[in-house]
Design goal:
5-stranded mixed sheet, globular, 329 residues, alpha/beta
């Protein structure tokens, strides 16, 4: 049996090709249906009712030889390989796929498209006040120093967590960190436990070592190497995802305005009929004039809105086809 994994860490999304046939991502009976829109590391291992990837692949192959080809980043492939270690009759292959480069090239085009839309001059008030905030990379990791920050982090998902030794007052507190990863919110290796003293760091690291499933990192304050590793693995994808999400939100807002077309035209007709089609009487009507400006603006900007849609919603399958062409397949 041959399976291809195409993993995009930005959206995130995992596409599967089984024996040269793409699996429908909307098929509720597909074995990755419930997790394919989550970061890969969130669902490699068992969590709650999710049995983990290794168990699913074993059920799928039922002893048959499996060739698995992974398309994506090398760090994600290494995690996949570690997860499936020891699985019999498995051959793993890696093919690099630069999803970050694809996303960054789209993000580079988007400011120019938004500028052409001229949102500050839009007759739609909800668009005139819209702006894109370019998110800084600081947003990918949150600090946990007290109970309030811990509860806030438990409600979120996707970002990394730096848990201070001030919060970790006992081994029981270490156990509570499981709430940060429950329901496949984030992988355990995205959590840093940061200490000011070497002795306490070692005590907690030794305690965690007794539990093989505990994959937190225990570091000293000022250890930048571990943070840099997390930034490369999770932070960049998180930041790119949020930047792209802000453009998608803008597009959705514009779509709402464009969907007003029929209502605006109906308003204009009602005003014209009420005024007996006397242009001298209704052209000065503020409501009629507002409708006219909105319709004209929407028509002029339609091309740029299509460009915006293309850049923020281009299907992953189109990038996959380009990759196939590069490989000569």
């Amino acid at each position: 049996m041959k399976i291809e994994f195409w993993y995009d860490p930005v959206n995130p999304e995992t596409m599967l090709k089984l024996e040269d046939r793409w699996l429908d991502k909307d098929d509720i009976y597909g074995f990755l249906y419930s997790v394919q829109s989550l970061p890969l590391q969130n669902w490699l291992y068992a969590s709650g009712s999710w049995p983990g990837l290794k168990a699913h692949l074993s059920d799928l192959t039922r002893g048959e030889e499996l060739t698995l080809i992974f398309f994506g980043r090398e760090c994600d492939f290494e995690d996949l390989k570690t997860c499936l270690e020891g699985m019999p009759d498995l051959e793993l292959f890696f093919e690099p796929w630069d999803v970050f480069g694809i996303c960054k090239s789209r993000l580079a085009e988007l400011p120019g498209v938004v500028e052409k839309l001229g949102l500050p001059e839009s007759p739609f008030p909800e668009l005139a006040c819209c702006s894109i905030q370019e998110e800084t990379e600081a947003g990918w990791i949150c600090s946990i120093e007290n109970e309030t920050q811990f509860r806030e982090a438990c409600r979120r998902e996707g970002d990394c967590c730096a848990v201070s030794g001030q919060y970790l007052t006992s081994f029981e507190k270490l156990e509570t960190l499981k709430q940060l990863t429950s329901s496949l919110k984030r992988p355990e290796d995205s959590i840093l436990c940061v200490f000011s003293g070497q002795e306490r760091r070692k005590q907690f690291a030794d305690y965690a070592a007794m539990y093989p499933d505990c994959r937190y990192s225990f570091v000293m304050e000022g250890d930048t190497a571990c943070r840099e590793r997390l930034r490369e693995k999770y932070g960049t994808a998180f930041s790119l995802r949020n930047r792209m999400r802000s453009y998608r939100n803008l597009y959705q807002q514009m779509e709402k305005c464009f969907r007003q077309k029929e209502a605006l035209e109906r308003q204009m007709r009602e005003i014209e009929l009420a005024c007996g089609r006397d242009s001298d009487r209704y052209v000065s009507d503020t409501v009629w004039e507002d409708c006219r400006k909105k319709l004209e603006w929407a028509e002029r900007k339609r091309t740029y809105v299509k460009d915006l849609c293309r850049l923020v919603y281009t299907q992953m399958t189109e990038d996959v086809e380009l990759k196939y062409k590069e490989m000569g397949l």
